[in-house]
Design a protein that fits this description.
alpha/beta; 4-stranded mixed β-sheet; 22 helices; 16 strands; 17% strand; globular; disordered N terminus
Length: 492
């Protein structure tokens, strides 16, 4: 076993060793250590692949490079992270991994095992070393801790999963309890999980691009840093970690990151923060990206300086989306978050391709844009720019056809046709393959309850306005239609 000789006590067991955790949670903990509000190190439990000896050779230290815009200033700042004590492979180092169950100083579990990680697996057994699934591994680890401390409630851990599913803490707790019941680990252990351990729901937000895709870029970074780092991790400066808990005092005491001035919020309800992120950040993306792509743009950053697209983005966010969120969070908070979103879109270091954001756009429009539109209608207004986004979405899929390379659409740039591949569910692609050239395409699309969970043509005035914008897109072009929508929204 190789360690980095850190003198800080092990307080965190982390499931996962990927870029996001290194540039987010581990970075935050390192900063809290430096500020003196925390004194702890992290043991990483790795389950996939094999251990990379280079990390140990680097003493488990690595560099985060935060690059982007923040408060109007371009940021390009490097930081050496020393919060990781060691990495243990849950299979290769099984005994060493399980030995941490008896660690007196251990207080917290952090995880990021992808959205598919928090899943109950009925094939897990208690005699496996280790069980296959993340919940199975955690259950066995917690049971070993329960036994090591004779069920002492003070040995319970606080769990902060960061997987991108709603109610991630509650979902993980349910998986652990189901697994414990199937393994017949006893009522005492189940009670200890419920009463001594605290499972928090969390929301995390930071774009992490990881190691540079081009070695030349990595070499340039190393030349500036003055050292080489095989685990260099690049991320944007923006970060947000919202932690929801039924015991906020305990959740804060175990991981007091907010005391270091870090963007970590503790709350008894993270719903408003999730709504803010989904509607403003994700909703803005889904509102403008198909339209911007049809207009010939390729990456998000360029859209932010476009004389037509930028006003459309601002109108969507500030005039049509934010009003639907008033009453859930403070107005200043909403405005500040929206301005930060615009700066993130302007990041000069990230080439965020529009076509990649268009993946599964139908389900994204339903979850990210439709709620804002419905709330606006409920408040007595039909938002023109959000309605235009539906017309643009329709145009993005229209006239596509199935080919050997997938479902291919066409956009016109400077009078020339340019094909693009559309990725979505089989049902969506089949619909447009059959109806993409129909005269009543938009009405068929809007009334498809399988896509929206409702008939959008039942929304007063929506289908007629969307059809008008769709016609404008086809006859006068997407930019002209966007200008009309901005003008109408401003005059409303």
């Amino acid at each position: 076993m190789t360690t980095n000789f850190s003198t800080r006590p092990v307080r965190v067991l982390q499931f996962g060793q990927g870029n996001f955790l290194r540039a987010f949670c581990d970075d935050f903990i390192d900063r809290a250590n430096e500020c003196g509000v925390y004194d702890g190190s992290i043991v990483i439990a790795q389950s996939v692949g094999t251990k990379n000896p280079t990390f140990a050779e680097q003493d488990f230290h690595y560099t985060t490079l935060l690059r982007g815009k923040e408060n109007g200033i371009v940021v390009n700042a490097a930081r050496r992270i020393t919060s990781v004590r060691e990495i243990l492979h849950t299979s290769e180092d099984y005994d060493a991994f399980m030995a941490y169950a008896a660690c007196q100083t251990l207080e917290a579990v952090i995880s990021n095992t992808t959205e598919a990680g928090i899943v109950y697996d009925e094939n897990d057994t208690c005699d496996q070393t280790p069980p296959h699934s993340f919940p199975g591994k955690l259950t066995k680890f917690l049971y070993a801790r329960f036994c090591a401390f004779d069920g002492d409630h003070s040995a319970g851990l606080v769990v902060y999963p960061t997987e991108l599913i709603e109610n991630n803490g509650a979902a993980l707790r349910d998986c652990v309890l189901r697994t414990a019941a199937r393994w017949q680990l006893g009522d005492g252990f189940a009670a200890w999980i419920k009463d001594a351990c605290l499972f928090c729901n969390t929301l995390v937000d930071r774009i992490v691009t990881g190691y540079p895709k081009k070695q030349a870029d990595a070499d340039a970074a190393f030349a500036k840093l003055g050292w080489e780092d095989a685990f260099l991790t690049i991320a944007e400066p923006f970060g947000l970690w919202v932690i929801e808990s039924t015991d906020i005092i305990r959740a804060k005491a175990v991981l007091p990151l907010d005391r270091a001035g870090l963007p970590v919020l503790f709350t008894d309800d993270l719903t408003p923060y999730r709504e803010r992120k989904v509607r403003i950040l994700n909703g803005a993306h889904t509102s403008f990206v198909p339209a911007a792509f049809l207009a010939g743009e390729e990456i998000v950053r360029d859209c932010m300086s476009h004389p037509v697209i930028r006003p459309f983005i601002d109108t969507c966010i500030f005039r049509e989306i934010i009003p639907t969120l008033r009453g859930t969070l403070d107005e200043d908070d909403l405005q500040a978050f929206a301005l930060a979103v615009c700066e993130r879109f302007e990041n000069p270091f990230i080439d965020h391709a529009l076509i990649s954001i268009c993946l599964n756009s139908v389900s994204k429009w339903k979850s990210r844009v439709l709620p804002s539109l419905l709330d606006a209608v409920k408040d007595g207004s039909l938002p023109h720019s959000l309605t235009l986004s539906f017309a643009a979405l329709t145009a993005f899929y229209a006239n596509g056809c199935m080919t050997a390379d997938g479902f291919v659409g066409t956009r016109e740039i400077n009078g020339e046709a340019h094909p693009y591949t559309i990725s979505d569910s089989p049902g969506v692609l089949a619909f447009f393959a059959e109806h993409g050239k129909d005269a009543d395409l938009l009405t068929r699309f809007a009334s498809n309850t399988a896509f929206w969970g409702m008939d959008l043509t039942a929304i007063p005035g929506f289908a007629a306005l969307a059809q008008t914008y769709y016609g404008d897109i086809r006859t006068r072009g997407i930019l002209s239609a966007m200008q009309d929508a901005v003008r109408a929204s401003t005059e409303a």
